[in-house]
């Protein structure tokens, strides 16, 4: 028996850093959504636990025991076997939670294969702060260090374009170099957005508090934001700790044109279209 699970890119449309815990982890308040582009996990019965990695972004990774896919398998059932294949399409260490999404998809696929109940958000958190939110793949408000998840009002329909300038950004380094760690959260109750313009206008008042620190580490991120702006995106921002940036578009052909313009002008960048949030 083989089971497949999709591991979509996670996008932080907002990312407010609101404090720091005694153990060094930062408190966040983030509006998280998932795109239609992502990795695939396939699991099949086997006596031994193994991982094979393929796909266009496989080069950035090795199937070492610390791969999040293998860590997720060991967390679910230490000592059990499965033949796992990861098709890697998301760039590694790029702020769109590839490793966390892979871990969450592995937990889903293996709990089906092994007929076990899915792990709790608390267990998932031991694999990474982004793993709990990636378990649900629905839009969510993420607080705490990533374990406090809540629903968000229905988002208007939109398209999204993702751009990564092919530079890896280290999440711990970005957090460590933050100067302001006690920033205001989003409002207690998120508004009920009427339509895309009202959502875009609300986003304009939000922040990614990691952006400045990430741009200091990799100045090309500022070029990516400008390039996305030049395509006519309604809103541009950086996801997570970078370097991937996103542009939001109306649900029409604009995002298709933007994507092909970016891919033509910046052949060395990774460009993907949602296609839908
Ligand atoms: C920045 C985000 O992408 C926003 O969604 C995530 O919070 C990062 O999630 P992640 O990559 O799964 O993070 P982890 O693998 O748990 O942590 C990597 C490192 O980032 C820092 N880290 C991460 C999450 C958090 N809330 N506070 C932190 O300070 C810590 O230094 C930690 O050692
Ligand atoms: N299956 C995996 N896919 C990607 N990275 C992995 C995986 N397993 C382990 N890693 C390691 O995890 C680190 C973070 O990679 P990942 O792609 O999840 O970062 P990210 O996109 O910045 O995540 P986030 O947005 O959650 O901070 C990398 O240094 C990578 O070597």
UniProtKB/TrEMBL annotation:
Residues 198-263 form the GHMP kinase C-terminal domain. SUPFAM superfamilies: GHMP Kinase, C-terminal domain (SSF55060), Ribosomal protein S5 domain 2-like (SSF54211). Pathway: Isoprenoid biosynthesis; isopentenyl diphosphate biosynthesis via DXP pathway; isopentenyl diphosphate from 1-deoxy-D-xylulose 5-phosphate: step 3/6. This is 4-diphosphocytidyl-2-C-methyl-D-erythritol kinase. Its EC number is 2.7.1.148. It comes from the Bacteria. It is an enzyme of class 2 (transferase). Belongs to the GHMP kinase family. IspE subfamily. Signal peptide: none annotated. It holds the Pfam family GHMP_kinases_N. Keywords: ATP-binding, Isoprene biosynthesis, Kinase, Nucleotide-binding, Transferase. Gene3D superfamilies: 3.30.230.10, GHMP kinase, C-terminal domain. It catalyses: 4-CDP-2-C-methyl-D-erythritol + ATP = 4-CDP-2-C-methyl-D-erythritol 2-phosphate + ADP + H(+). HAMAP family: IspE. InterPro entries: GHMP_kinase_C_dom, GHMP_kinase_C_sf, GHMP_kinase_N_dom, IspE, Ribosomal_Su5_D2-typ_SF, Ribsml_uS5_D2-typ_fold_subgr. It comes from Ruegeria aquimaris. GO terms for molecular function: 4-(cytidine 5'-diphospho)-2-C-methyl-D-erythritol kinase activity. Catalyzes the phosphorylation of the position 2 hydroxy group of 4-diphosphocytidyl-2C-methyl-D-erythritol. ATP binds at residues 91-101. Residues 67-135 form the GHMP kinase N-terminal domain. The keyword ATP-binding applies. The active site is at 10, 130.
């Amino acid at each position: 028996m083989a089971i497949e699970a999709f591991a979509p890119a996670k996008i932080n449309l907002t990312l407010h850093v609101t404090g720091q815990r005694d153990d060094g982890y930062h408190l966040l308040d983030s509006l998280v959504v998932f795109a239609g582009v992502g990795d695939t996990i396939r699991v099949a019965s086997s006596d031994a636990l193994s991982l094979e990695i393929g796909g266009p972004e496989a080069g950035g990774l090795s199937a070492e025991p610390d791969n999040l896919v293998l860590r997720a398998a060991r967390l679910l059932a230490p000592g059990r076997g499965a033949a796992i294949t990861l098709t890697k399409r998301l760039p590694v260490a790029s702020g769109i939670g590839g490793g966390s999404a892979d871990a969450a998809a592995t937990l889903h696929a293996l709990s089906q294969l092994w007929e076990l109940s899915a792990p709790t958000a608390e267990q998932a958190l031991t694999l990474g702060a982004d793993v709990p939110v990636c378990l649900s793949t629905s839009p969510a408000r993420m607080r705490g260090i990533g374990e406090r998840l809540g629903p968000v009002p229905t988002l208007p329909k939109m398209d999204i374009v993702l751009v990564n300038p092919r530079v890896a950004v280290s999440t711990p380094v970005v957090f460590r170099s933050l100067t302001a760690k006690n920033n205001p959260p989003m409002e207690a109750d998120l508004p009920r957005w009427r339509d895309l313009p009202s959502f875009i206008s609300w986003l304009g008042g939000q922040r990614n508090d990691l952006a400045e620190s990430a741009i200091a580490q990799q100045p090309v991120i500022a070029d990516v934001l400008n390039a996305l702006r030049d395509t006519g995106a309604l809103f541009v921002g950086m996801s997570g700790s970078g370097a991937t940036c996103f542009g939001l578009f109306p649900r029409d052909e604009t995002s298709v044109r933007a994507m092909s313009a970016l891919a033509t002008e910046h052949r060395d960048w990774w460009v993907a279209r949602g296609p839908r949030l």
